[in-house]
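Q: For a teaching session next week I want to show students how multiple molecules come together into a single three-dimensional assembly. I've collected the sequence lines for a complex. Could you give me the predicted structure tokens for the whole thing so I can convert them for display?
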Amino acid sequence: MRLYAVVVAGGFRRFATYRLATVAGVFTNTVFGFIIAHTYIALWDERPHLGGYDVSQAVTYVWVGQALLVTVALMGGGFEDELIERIRTGDIAVDLYRPADLQLFWLSGDLGRAAFHILGRGVVPMACGALAFDLALPGSALTWGAFLLAVLLGVVVSFALRFLVALSAFWLMDGAGVSHVSWLTGMFFSGMLLPLNVFPGVLGEVARALPWSSLLQLPADVLLGMYTGWELAGVYAFQAGWAVALLGAGRVLQRLATRRVVVQGG
Amino acid sequence: MAGSEALAGGGSHGAGAVADGGTHGAGAVAGGGSHGTGALADGGARARRALLTDGVRAYGLIVAMWVRSTMTYRASFVMTTLASFATTAFDFVAILLMFSHIDALGGYSLAEIAVLYGVTGTAFGLCDLVLGSVERLGRRVRDGTLDTLLVRPVPVLAQIAADRFALRRVGRVAQGVLVLGYGLLTVDVAWTPLKALMVPAMVLTGAVIFGAVFVVGAAFQFWAQDAAQVQNAFTYGGNTLLQYPPTVFTKDLVRGVTFVVPLAFVNWLPALYVLGRPYPVEVPQWLAFAPPLVAVAAGWASGIAWRAGLRAYRSTGS
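A: Of course. Below is the structure for the complete assembly, covering every listed component.
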């Protein structure tokens, strides 16, 4: 357990090193936040209460999206590129000999990364949004805590999905195609394009049932105070259920994949 | 002299000498004409032309190499091209989803927004295809591999623009063209020859204006290597901004992209003339026809920024 705690801390420190990149990223998130917020205001101007949000909740949703974009690795760019590269070059053989579980090792690193990103990339854009717009942020610390727990579960689901993507490199060698398709699916079904409760009919129902809704839609709704009591427990159960199922699938795939590894000695 | 300084002063000086050597050399070739007599000026112009031809030819060679390399993983190429198409298509799907609830956004119909979207999408796609790789400059500065490019007898900009050329980006161009076609077919416009001519002109000048922003962003990375993201705010962010009508945004924001970062000339100003819509900010009407001038000016300014950045470059030192 100590080993994995060290890896979590290492993941945090590793991303904390790039201070200028963090500032640049915050700038970009903030610019996009402004652009998207104005398009949402125009949309909610035409249709007040669309999807059960009022204008200020819709704008809050935009800024939650910008704050979580990197934390839940919606655009990819987390550990998976590195793992794919290790699989392609064969360095993965070394990892498999290490006295640590492959999946837990990378999960720990990714949790450390996410912890840094929610602080480094999340807080400032959210503050900028709160300064420039009238946001519907909760006053109670309890709701913020509930939000953070939903984000944590979202990160685990996101990790489990990206771990599956990375392992596909055992068969495809070049993982760029799969990881691109995967983050694309994530962008669409997480609610990053548009809140999932604005999706019409069946599309909306399907989108809300898929694992990606754990990444943005559900944490945002928890922050907006849409769920309390048992409903909130239901949200966590939904996220945890997907996390367990996808992590399990990752383990199965990992077992199949490692059988394919041939170490070239010499 | 530069060499001895490099030996005496250690790594960082040495790299400086390499960088200086590179730019001085180019300066001598490019600037020679302006100082000298008529004959020399003539030679300068010829040298500049030669430099340009060299750059374009080298660009073509490097691009061809990357295309061959891409084709090694054909399945991955097909998937990334489709993904590139779909990535941008999702932006438009979001707009379609919005229009499943509304008839007009900011007073604009879906067809009008499709025209705005199509022009900026195609222009940005073309620019991204040709020049998109320059955003990787910061990485090359960081890991020191930029030095390799400096000692080759090919303009650095041509090398960095062709570096890791991504053919998959044609997916983005195709998506922009499709939406533009849809917009032009469905939009209600009293077409004149001038308006018809302005559509392809917008796409081309728009690509040049975006290109200038890309190059300025890359030049900025000579100073701030980790700040590639800042560039995204202006390139990808600018593209997203221009997909929507200017009436959606605050007037200050519209003024900013009209007079500070001239993105409004990519589509807003000329397209609003074509669509017969008033510009939400008070501007003289002839600005609708200014994009070619703005493109030339922006290209020129980006050249200056690029040379300044290259001159300021100091290597990682080890």
